[in-house]
Structures are given as C-alpha cells and as structure tokens.
Amino acid sequence: MPDPPPVLTDDESDVAERLSADVDMLATQIGDRNVVRNEALTAARRYVEQRFDAMGYACAAQLYQVGDDEFANIEVERAGRRRDAQMVIVGAHYDTERGVPGANDNATGIAGLLAIAGAFAESDPQVTVRFVAFANEERPYFQTEGMGSWVYAARCRERDEQIAGMIALDTVGYYTSRRDVQRYPPVVGWSHPRVGNYMGLLSNWRSRGWTRRVHGLFRAHSEFPSDRVIIPCVVPRIGWSDDWSFWRFGYRALCVTDTAFLRYRYYHTIEDTADKIDIPRMAQMIVGLRRVVAELIGASIS
Q1: pLDDT band, residue 236 (cuts 50/70/90)
Q2: How many CA atoms lie within 13 A of 88 on its CB side?
Q3: Which phi and psi angles does 204 have, rounded to 5°?
C-alpha cells in the first residue's frame, strides 16, 4: 500500500505540477530514448531545450560524435558577479537504458534539473551556475568516453574551468516507509537508514568536503529526510552516474539519488513508469535542493 501523500506548501505544489508534466512527457509520451531509438533521444533533447528556452535561458549544445552517431549535451548558464569564484554545476542525463520508459531513471532527474534551473532564470548570482542535460549515461556508453558527461567534463578540464563542485541528479523519485525495501552494499549498510524514505547523497572520498557542505545546507533548509554516503573507490559500482565523469577529470562531484537499484525494484525494467513516481515527496526534496543551490551561488529564488 502506498504511503499517504504529504501536505505540500503552495511552492511545493507548483513544483509538483511541473515535475509531473515533465516526467510524463519524457517517460510516457517520448518513452525509451537512447542510441537505438535516436529519434526519441532527439525528441527528449528538443523538449529540454524548449523548456530552458521558455525560462529565458540561452541554450548551448555541445555536439559530439561516437562512431557514426551524433549526440548533444545541453547547457545553460547564469553568470556570477564574482568572476574569481569557482562555479557550480548541476546536471542530469536524459537518455534511458534500452527498452525501458525511464520514468525514475532518469526522467525524474531531468525534471528536477529543470525545476531547479527555473528558480534561477532571472537571478543575479554571485557565483556562476550551469545546468546541463547530458546524453548517454546509460549502456553501452556507461563509464566510457562516449558518456555525455565525460565529454563535458573533459572540455571543462581542457579549458581549465574552475568548479567548486558538481551535483548529478539521477533516479530521484521513489520514496517509501516500508522497512524491507532499502538495501546497501555490504561495507556501508550497517550505519545507514533501513527505511527508503530519504534522499541520498553519494560521493567518493575526494569529494567528501563538497558532499558534507551540500548535505549540511540541505539539512539546514529542508526537513525532508536525507543521508550521505562517502565511499572509497574500491567499493563496486561507486560512481554509477555522471558524477563519475567529473571525478575522472579531478573535479569534486556527488550524486543525489533515491539509491536506484538499492531501493527501486523497477530500475532498468519496462515497469519504470510515471505512475511509480512519488511526485509530492520528490517536490519536497527538489524545493530543498533549490535552496541549497541558492546558498551555493549566492542568489535569490525567483
């Protein structure tokens, strides 16, 4: 039996409405979107661009080739007044595993990215912030040079761009109070929540300071349950999203997630559909994360 919905503020209700529409468009109307269904992948890209455009951002596409196929990362930016300050990057991937609609993985991440970006479309931040939708996080490109985030992070390093930290949103829409759902890798599970009702922040050891900072701000600005896990790279599957690419180029990065396959039994299946997503709780989490980004970049939420 699903958990009863929480009581939302007006702001959270507005965010929930937009999240629901974005998840429905990507997972239900566009659906399976990847190199095998390149037309659908392009449709997802165009949808993200249209949403950014409607907010008033100027989209920049980073085009790249893998074999005979062309892909694109979509970037928007709000330049900061402090040109000497290290920028903040928030990103999510818009592709899916082959053959699945990808509501949680990762229509929720893109919907969250758009909701956060929309809050700063008219802001004048002290610190530069970029919002990036990445191609090709999923197989066959996962943890290869064909990942959109790899291509993007490589260009950041080539340009010697100074980044305070990156936040990847991946699989952020499933929350439950059931005690038999949440799992962990054996070496980390004993000290973490047994109920899967929280937002997780996962990072490698090098990014621990960045992760503690983001988590501390989240706890200061939101009552939504949260937990952080800082894992040595020897643990299998650490870096299961676009944060991994930034690590490879020496940047600090973390993944915001509902812990994906460690909680969500529909992960990478045809049952990963929009009706599984807990939109109200996701909205609460995203509103909290918007406040974190506002603190990180020194901006007001519009």
Answers
A1: low
A2: 26
A3: -85, 175
- Eight-state DSSP code of residue 34: B
Q: Is the peptide bond before 136 cis (omega within 30 degrees of 0)?
A: no
Least confident of 160-169, 238-247, 283-292: 238-247
Q: Is residue 7 part of a domain?
A: no
Rg of the chain (C-alpha set): 18
Is 9 within a domain?
A: no
Asked if residue 230 is part of any domain, the answer here is yes
List Cα–Cα distances, 44 to 27, 100, 185, in angstroms: 10, 14, 33
Q: The domain spanning residue 230 has which CATH number? A: 3.40.630.10
What is the average per-residue pLDDT within 228-257? 87
pLDDT for 274 beyond 60: yes
Contact between residue 170 and residue 255 where contact means Cβ atoms under 8 Å apart: yes
Tens digit of each residue's pLDDT (9 = 90 or more) over 155-171: 999 999 999 999 999 99
Please state, in angstroms and rounded to a whole number, the distance separating the CA atoms of residues 71 and 27: 19
For the record, the structure tokens of 152 come out as 């993007």
Number of domains in the chain: 1
Residue 128 near residue 84 (C-beta atoms within 8 A): no
Alpha carbon separation from 119 to 59, 78, 264, 291, 299 (Å, rounded): 16, 11, 28, 9, 10
Indicate the SS3 state at residue 207.
Answer: helix
Q: Which domain holds residue 238?
A: 14-297
Residue 102 lies in a domain: yes
